[in-house]
Amino acid sequence: MWDDLRPVGRHEATGGYRRSAWTGTDRTLREWFAGEAAARGMDLTVDRNGNQWAWWGDPDRSERGGRAVVTGSHLDSVPDGGAFDGPLGVVSAFAAVDRLRADGHEPARPVAVVSFADEEGARFGVPCVGSRLLTGVLDPDRARGLRDADGATMADAMRSAGHDPAHLGRDDDTLARIGSYVELHVEQGRALVDQPAAVGVGHGIWPHGRWRLDLRGEANHAGTTRLADRDDPTLRLASAVLAARTAAEQVGAVATVGKVEVAPNSTNAVPSLVRAWLDVRAADEASVRAVVAAVGAAAAADPAEESWSPEVVFDESLRDAVAALLGGAPVLPTAAGHDAGILAAAGVPTAMLFVRNPTGVSHSPAEHAEREDCLAGVDALAAVLADLTGDRQR
Ligand SMILES: [Zn+2]
217 C-alpha vs ligand 1 centroid, how far in Å? Predict the structure, then answer.
């Protein structure tokens, strides 16, 4: 599976992956997913919001045990992202199915491998679009109208990728099939590096959000305009970035200004507009809000909230059961958002497994996981799926 995925969307110069949602590259990834499902005789369904599902067992027939045990992740990436963020969860899900079948396991409940659409939100600015639409926390009209950097709407992008955007929105039929969701993901930090365990279990996800700052000024000549006469919005950007850092340090949050657009974006012109995006995450909502307020005050602007993800604590009994099943795996908090967080917030019993990342780096080509640790992840996932699905023979 890795051999097939390795070249898809890889940028030669950076070595990173450019797998934005609803692009030609995304289509290739979707075809790969469909091919893996077909190769295993798993029925493929694509829900109203473009999420792909591969089924082992009939999704609509609750066998003895009830609704499906779902596992998977996403295949899209941030610009120049790593190979593992997302695909590790999907590859491991298929590999875990192979493992269970090789072991002769006959699940009493259906098993589904899922690939959620547009998890990173790299193209249209809102993360976890597939799971947010599925659970009804993202308004379908807003989603359809989101625009990428070239001005294309999400609706147009979906249409040109062959998905009809007319039926986006909360999907109770699909939700009703999900009994529980287990997402395996590469670790995005270094908590496991110093532990004797290759696999950890997620405790919860910090509350986090994205805000846009529109800083307006007046375009003018870089040589002939006296400093005193300038209305230069980059000065307010500088204040905002420094305030984000200071405020984050004060409350134990993390804050990032990782995307900036400058107009007219010319070396010899005072800018007329700076648009900057702020990402803030902390252990509690009040800390996040304090950082955003400090940034707004420093920039003399009102930050526009583009997305908000409340704190998620994964299902306690499922989390403890999974940790015990894995022989007392370490339980870790995370500041990264995941589809698992969206489903957990919607009331689906959800758990996450993290596979050790020796660099701790993510959203970069330096992201890594050792083969041995990835295989330990498959073992762990297979054990969890076996436990959650039960066996018809026993
Ligand atoms: Zn991810």
Answer: 37
CA of 252 to the centre of ligand 1 (A): 23
Contacts of 175 (CB under 8 A, 6+ apart): 134, 135, 346, 348
How many A from CA of 111 to the centre of ligand 1? 21
Q: How far apart are the CA of 51 and the centre of ligand 1, in A?
A: 15
Taking the centre of ligand 1 as the mean of its atom positions, its distance from the CA of residue 247, in whole angstroms, is 27
Whether cis (ω within 30° of 0) applies to the bond prior to 264 is yes
Neighbours of 108 (CB within 10 A): 19
pLDDT of 202 over the 80 cut? yes
Cβ-contact 328, 195 below 8 angstroms: no
Q: Model pTM?
A: 0.87
Q: How confident is the model at residue 171 (pLDDT cuts 50, 70, 90)?
A: very high
Q: What is the pLDDT of residues 173-189, one digit of tens each?
A: 999 999 999 999 999 98
The average confidence (pLDDT) of the chain is 95
Q: How far is the CA of 297 from the centre of ligand 1 (A)?
A: 32
The answer to whether residue 63 scores a pLDDT higher than 90 is no
